[in-house]
Amino acid sequence: xxxxxxxxxxxxDGAPGAAGDFVALLKPRVMSLVVFTGFVGMLIAPGTIHPVxxxxxxxxxxxxxxxAGAINMWYDRDIDAVMARTxxxxxxxxxxxxxxALGFGIFLSVAxxxxxxxxxxxxxxxxxxxxxxxxxxxxxxxxxxxxxxNIVIGGAAGAFPPMIGWAAVTGSxxxxxxALFALIFFWTxxxxxxxxxxxxxxxxxxxxxxxxxxxGKAVTKRQMLFYTVLLMPVALAPTMLGMAGWIYxxxxxxxxxxxxxxxxxxxxxxxxxxxxxxFGYSLFYLAGHFALLLIDGSAGLSG
Length: 303
Prior knowledge:
Layout: H1 3-8, H2 19-25, H3 28-44, H4 51-75, H5 77-80, H6 98-120, H7 122-143, H8 150-154, H9 156-159, H10 161-170, H11 175-198, H12 200-206, H13 211-214, H14 217-235, H15 237-240, H16 246-267, H17 273-296
Protein backbone atom coordinates (compact mmCIF):
# COMPACT_ATOMS: atom_id res chain seq x y z
CA UNK A 1 0.00 0.00 0.00
CA UNK A 2 1.43 3.35 -1.05
CA UNK A 3 2.54 6.02 1.43
CA UNK A 4 0.14 8.50 -0.16
CA UNK A 5 -2.81 6.17 0.38
CA UNK A 6 -1.73 5.47 3.94
CA UNK A 7 -1.59 9.22 4.57
CA UNK A 8 -5.06 9.64 3.09
CA UNK A 9 -6.47 7.01 5.37
CA UNK A 10 -4.67 8.06 8.56
CA UNK A 11 -5.74 10.60 11.12
CA UNK A 12 -4.40 14.03 10.19
CA ASP A 13 -4.52 15.96 13.42
CA GLY A 14 -2.68 13.51 15.69
CA ALA A 15 -5.53 13.52 18.22
CA PRO A 16 -6.71 10.21 19.65
CA GLY A 17 -9.81 8.73 18.06
CA ALA A 18 -13.10 9.09 19.92
CA ALA A 19 -14.47 6.14 21.84
CA GLY A 20 -17.33 5.85 19.37
CA ASP A 21 -14.86 5.45 16.52
CA PHE A 22 -13.18 2.51 18.23
CA VAL A 23 -16.62 0.97 18.83
CA ALA A 24 -17.36 1.42 15.11
CA LEU A 25 -14.20 -0.57 14.31
CA LEU A 26 -15.82 -3.56 16.01
CA LYS A 27 -18.69 -3.64 13.48
CA PRO A 28 -21.36 -3.64 16.22
CA ARG A 29 -24.26 -4.42 13.88
CA VAL A 30 -22.50 -7.55 12.65
CA MET A 31 -21.43 -8.36 16.21
CA SER A 32 -25.02 -8.34 17.49
CA LEU A 33 -26.03 -11.31 15.31
CA VAL A 34 -22.76 -13.09 16.05
CA VAL A 35 -23.30 -12.73 19.79
CA PHE A 36 -26.91 -13.87 19.53
CA THR A 37 -26.05 -17.07 17.66
CA GLY A 38 -23.21 -17.81 20.08
CA PHE A 39 -25.51 -17.18 23.03
CA VAL A 40 -28.14 -19.56 21.65
CA GLY A 41 -25.50 -22.23 21.02
CA MET A 42 -24.53 -21.98 24.67
CA LEU A 43 -28.10 -22.05 26.01
CA ILE A 44 -29.23 -25.11 24.08
CA ALA A 45 -26.06 -27.12 24.70
CA PRO A 46 -26.48 -30.09 27.07
CA GLY A 47 -24.93 -29.52 30.47
CA THR A 48 -24.51 -26.58 32.78
CA ILE A 49 -22.28 -23.54 33.00
CA HIS A 50 -22.02 -21.00 35.81
CA PRO A 51 -23.83 -17.76 34.90
CA VAL A 52 -20.64 -15.73 35.41
CA UNK A 53 -18.71 -17.99 33.04
CA UNK A 54 -21.59 -17.82 30.58
CA UNK A 55 -21.35 -14.02 30.64
CA UNK A 56 -17.57 -14.25 30.13
CA UNK A 57 -18.06 -16.58 27.16
CA UNK A 58 -20.55 -14.21 25.52
CA UNK A 59 -18.23 -11.26 26.15
CA UNK A 60 -15.30 -13.12 24.60
CA UNK A 61 -17.33 -14.02 21.52
CA UNK A 62 -18.36 -10.37 21.14
CA UNK A 63 -14.85 -9.01 21.64
CA UNK A 64 -13.27 -11.64 19.38
CA UNK A 65 -15.76 -10.88 16.63
CA UNK A 66 -15.15 -7.16 16.98
CA UNK A 67 -11.39 -7.67 16.99
CA ALA A 68 -11.55 -9.55 13.70
CA GLY A 69 -13.69 -6.75 12.29
CA ALA A 70 -11.13 -4.13 13.34
CA ILE A 71 -8.29 -6.02 11.64
CA ASN A 72 -10.47 -6.44 8.56
CA MET A 73 -11.03 -2.67 8.46
CA TRP A 74 -7.29 -2.09 8.78
CA TYR A 75 -6.49 -4.42 5.87
CA ASP A 76 -9.35 -3.20 3.67
CA ARG A 77 -8.84 0.52 4.29
CA ASP A 78 -7.92 1.11 0.64
CA ILE A 79 -11.08 -0.43 -0.82
CA ASP A 80 -13.21 0.96 2.03
CA ALA A 81 -12.17 4.44 0.90
CA VAL A 82 -13.57 3.73 -2.58
CA MET A 83 -16.91 2.16 -1.68
CA ALA A 84 -19.87 4.39 -0.80
CA ARG A 85 -21.05 1.91 1.83
CA THR A 86 -17.74 1.97 3.72
CA UNK A 87 -15.99 5.25 2.97
CA UNK A 88 -17.24 6.79 6.22
CA UNK A 89 -15.70 4.10 8.41
CA UNK A 90 -13.19 5.39 11.00
CA UNK A 91 -9.99 4.66 9.04
CA UNK A 92 -10.84 5.92 5.52
CA UNK A 93 -12.54 8.98 7.00
CA UNK A 94 -9.35 9.79 8.91
CA UNK A 95 -10.80 9.54 12.41
CA UNK A 96 -8.51 6.68 13.46
CA UNK A 97 -5.00 5.91 12.21
CA UNK A 98 -4.53 2.57 10.49
CA UNK A 99 -1.83 1.47 12.93
CA UNK A 100 -4.06 2.21 15.90
CA ALA A 101 -6.82 0.07 14.43
CA LEU A 102 -4.45 -2.82 13.82
CA GLY A 103 -3.03 -2.67 17.34
CA PHE A 104 -6.51 -2.42 18.79
CA GLY A 105 -7.66 -5.48 16.83
CA ILE A 106 -4.64 -7.61 17.72
CA PHE A 107 -4.87 -6.73 21.41
CA LEU A 108 -8.56 -7.60 21.58
CA SER A 109 -8.01 -10.83 19.63
CA VAL A 110 -5.35 -12.08 22.02
CA ALA A 111 -7.26 -10.90 25.11
CA UNK A 112 -10.54 -12.53 24.07
CA UNK A 113 -8.95 -15.88 23.23
CA UNK A 114 -6.85 -15.90 26.41
CA UNK A 115 -9.83 -15.02 28.60
CA UNK A 116 -12.03 -17.64 26.96
CA UNK A 117 -9.38 -20.32 27.36
CA UNK A 118 -8.33 -19.49 30.90
CA UNK A 119 -11.75 -18.74 32.37
CA UNK A 120 -14.09 -21.01 30.38
CA UNK A 121 -12.21 -23.80 28.56
CA UNK A 122 -9.64 -24.20 25.83
CA UNK A 123 -12.00 -25.96 23.44
CA UNK A 124 -14.04 -22.77 23.22
CA UNK A 125 -10.88 -20.66 23.25
CA UNK A 126 -9.37 -22.64 20.37
CA UNK A 127 -12.54 -22.33 18.29
CA UNK A 128 -12.61 -18.58 18.94
CA UNK A 129 -8.98 -18.30 17.84
CA UNK A 130 -9.75 -20.34 14.72
CA UNK A 131 -12.71 -18.11 13.86
CA UNK A 132 -10.61 -14.94 14.18
CA UNK A 133 -7.70 -16.38 12.18
CA UNK A 134 -10.04 -17.72 9.50
CA UNK A 135 -11.78 -14.35 9.08
CA UNK A 136 -8.54 -12.39 8.96
CA UNK A 137 -6.22 -14.62 6.96
CA UNK A 138 -8.47 -16.92 4.92
CA UNK A 139 -11.32 -14.54 4.10
CA UNK A 140 -9.89 -11.02 4.33
CA UNK A 141 -6.31 -11.56 3.14
CA UNK A 142 -6.59 -14.60 0.87
CA UNK A 143 -10.08 -14.92 -0.59
CA UNK A 144 -11.86 -11.56 -0.64
CA UNK A 145 -9.81 -9.95 -3.42
CA UNK A 146 -9.02 -13.13 -5.36
CA UNK A 147 -12.13 -15.18 -6.01
CA UNK A 148 -15.90 -14.78 -6.43
CA UNK A 149 -16.19 -17.72 -4.05
CA ASN A 150 -14.88 -15.48 -1.25
CA ILE A 151 -18.21 -15.48 0.57
CA VAL A 152 -18.89 -19.18 0.05
CA ILE A 153 -15.65 -20.28 1.72
CA GLY A 154 -15.07 -17.26 3.91
CA GLY A 155 -18.56 -17.54 5.35
CA ALA A 156 -17.24 -20.25 7.64
CA ALA A 157 -15.77 -17.53 9.86
CA GLY A 158 -19.22 -16.23 10.78
CA ALA A 159 -20.54 -19.75 11.36
CA PHE A 160 -18.29 -20.50 14.34
CA PRO A 161 -20.10 -18.58 17.16
CA PRO A 162 -22.77 -21.21 18.00
CA MET A 163 -20.06 -23.88 18.00
CA ILE A 164 -18.04 -21.71 20.38
CA GLY A 165 -21.05 -21.23 22.66
CA TRP A 166 -21.73 -24.97 22.59
CA ALA A 167 -18.10 -25.76 23.42
CA ALA A 168 -18.17 -23.26 26.29
CA VAL A 169 -20.70 -25.56 27.99
CA THR A 170 -19.63 -29.01 26.81
CA GLY A 171 -15.91 -28.55 26.22
CA SER A 172 -16.26 -30.28 22.86
CA UNK A 173 -17.53 -30.14 19.28
CA UNK A 174 -20.44 -32.42 18.39
CA UNK A 175 -22.64 -33.18 15.41
CA UNK A 176 -25.28 -30.87 16.92
CA UNK A 177 -22.94 -27.89 17.02
CA UNK A 178 -21.77 -28.69 13.49
CA ALA A 179 -25.44 -28.52 12.41
CA LEU A 180 -25.65 -24.99 13.81
CA PHE A 181 -22.42 -24.15 11.96
CA ALA A 182 -23.90 -25.52 8.72
CA LEU A 183 -27.04 -23.42 9.06
CA ILE A 184 -25.05 -20.19 9.11
CA PHE A 185 -22.49 -21.42 6.55
CA PHE A 186 -25.11 -22.14 3.86
CA TRP A 187 -27.12 -19.02 4.76
CA THR A 188 -24.15 -16.70 4.18
CA UNK A 189 -23.87 -16.80 0.35
CA UNK A 190 -27.46 -15.76 -0.48
CA UNK A 191 -27.34 -13.19 2.33
CA UNK A 192 -24.21 -11.45 1.02
CA UNK A 193 -24.97 -11.94 -2.66
CA UNK A 194 -28.25 -10.08 -2.13
CA UNK A 195 -26.20 -7.17 -0.78
CA UNK A 196 -23.65 -7.43 -3.59
CA UNK A 197 -26.39 -7.27 -6.24
CA UNK A 198 -27.52 -3.79 -5.28
CA UNK A 199 -23.97 -2.72 -4.35
CA UNK A 200 -22.45 -4.20 -7.49
CA UNK A 201 -21.04 -0.87 -8.69
CA UNK A 202 -19.25 -0.35 -5.38
CA UNK A 203 -17.55 -3.74 -5.57
CA UNK A 204 -16.63 -3.18 -9.24
CA UNK A 205 -15.03 0.19 -8.48
CA UNK A 206 -13.09 -1.29 -5.56
CA UNK A 207 -11.89 -4.27 -7.60
CA UNK A 208 -13.50 -6.85 -5.31
CA UNK A 209 -14.48 -9.92 -7.38
CA UNK A 210 -17.91 -10.51 -5.93
CA UNK A 211 -19.97 -12.98 -7.95
CA UNK A 212 -22.20 -10.34 -9.68
CA UNK A 213 -19.07 -8.48 -10.80
CA UNK A 214 -17.28 -11.53 -12.19
CA UNK A 215 -20.06 -13.87 -13.36
CA GLY A 216 -22.91 -11.41 -13.82
CA LYS A 217 -26.17 -10.82 -12.03
CA ALA A 218 -28.09 -13.62 -13.75
CA VAL A 219 -25.64 -16.28 -12.54
CA THR A 220 -25.66 -14.77 -9.05
CA LYS A 221 -29.45 -14.85 -8.86
CA ARG A 222 -29.52 -18.53 -9.86
CA GLN A 223 -26.90 -19.34 -7.23
CA MET A 224 -28.91 -17.48 -4.61
CA LEU A 225 -31.98 -19.57 -5.44
CA PHE A 226 -29.90 -22.76 -5.28
CA TYR A 227 -28.62 -21.93 -1.79
CA THR A 228 -32.04 -20.96 -0.43
CA VAL A 229 -33.43 -24.32 -1.59
CA LEU A 230 -30.40 -26.15 -0.14
CA LEU A 231 -30.91 -24.36 3.16
CA MET A 232 -34.32 -25.91 3.78
CA PRO A 233 -33.08 -29.43 4.69
CA VAL A 234 -29.96 -28.01 6.37
CA ALA A 235 -32.12 -25.83 8.62
CA LEU A 236 -34.22 -28.85 9.62
CA ALA A 237 -31.19 -30.67 11.04
CA PRO A 238 -31.81 -29.45 14.64
CA THR A 239 -35.22 -31.14 14.57
CA MET A 240 -33.82 -34.30 13.00
CA LEU A 241 -31.09 -34.43 15.67
CA GLY A 242 -33.51 -33.88 18.56
CA MET A 243 -32.18 -30.44 19.45
CA ALA A 244 -35.59 -28.90 18.81
CA GLY A 245 -39.14 -30.09 18.21
CA TRP A 246 -41.59 -29.59 15.42
CA ILE A 247 -42.48 -26.06 16.45
CA TYR A 248 -39.01 -25.21 15.24
CA UNK A 249 -39.26 -27.62 12.30
CA UNK A 250 -42.59 -26.32 10.99
CA UNK A 251 -41.51 -22.70 11.46
CA UNK A 252 -38.24 -23.42 9.69
CA UNK A 253 -40.13 -24.71 6.66
CA UNK A 254 -42.23 -21.53 6.57
CA UNK A 255 -39.14 -19.32 6.92
CA UNK A 256 -37.36 -21.35 4.26
CA UNK A 257 -40.23 -21.02 1.80
CA UNK A 258 -40.16 -17.27 2.40
CA UNK A 259 -36.45 -17.22 1.58
CA UNK A 260 -37.03 -19.22 -1.61
CA UNK A 261 -39.83 -16.86 -2.66
CA UNK A 262 -37.55 -13.89 -2.00
CA UNK A 263 -34.87 -15.47 -4.20
CA UNK A 264 -37.44 -16.10 -6.96
CA UNK A 265 -38.52 -12.46 -6.79
CA UNK A 266 -34.88 -11.43 -7.22
CA UNK A 267 -34.47 -13.85 -10.12
CA UNK A 268 -37.47 -12.44 -11.96
CA UNK A 269 -36.62 -8.75 -11.56
CA UNK A 270 -33.92 -6.43 -12.85
CA UNK A 271 -34.61 -3.88 -10.12
CA UNK A 272 -32.62 -3.48 -6.90
CA UNK A 273 -35.66 -3.49 -4.60
CA UNK A 274 -36.16 -7.30 -4.48
CA UNK A 275 -32.47 -7.81 -3.61
CA UNK A 276 -32.74 -5.22 -0.84
CA UNK A 277 -35.82 -6.96 0.51
CA UNK A 278 -34.10 -10.34 0.33
CA PHE A 279 -31.09 -8.98 2.24
CA GLY A 280 -33.39 -7.70 4.99
CA TYR A 281 -35.36 -10.95 5.05
CA SER A 282 -32.15 -12.97 5.31
CA LEU A 283 -31.35 -11.30 8.63
CA PHE A 284 -34.85 -12.07 9.88
CA TYR A 285 -34.50 -15.66 8.63
CA LEU A 286 -31.33 -16.39 10.58
CA ALA A 287 -32.37 -14.56 13.74
CA GLY A 288 -35.73 -16.31 13.56
CA HIS A 289 -34.15 -19.76 13.42
CA PHE A 290 -31.97 -19.13 16.44
CA ALA A 291 -34.84 -17.56 18.36
CA LEU A 292 -36.91 -20.67 17.59
CA LEU A 293 -34.09 -22.85 18.90
CA LEU A 294 -34.35 -20.99 22.19
CA ILE A 295 -38.11 -21.41 22.30
CA ASP A 296 -38.28 -25.03 21.15
CA GLY A 297 -34.83 -26.32 22.14
CA SER A 298 -34.87 -29.59 24.04
CA ALA A 299 -31.82 -28.76 26.21
CA GLY A 300 -30.72 -25.78 28.27
CA LEU A 301 -28.28 -24.62 30.89
CA SER A 302 -29.92 -26.84 33.44
CA GLY A 303 -30.10 -29.78 31.00
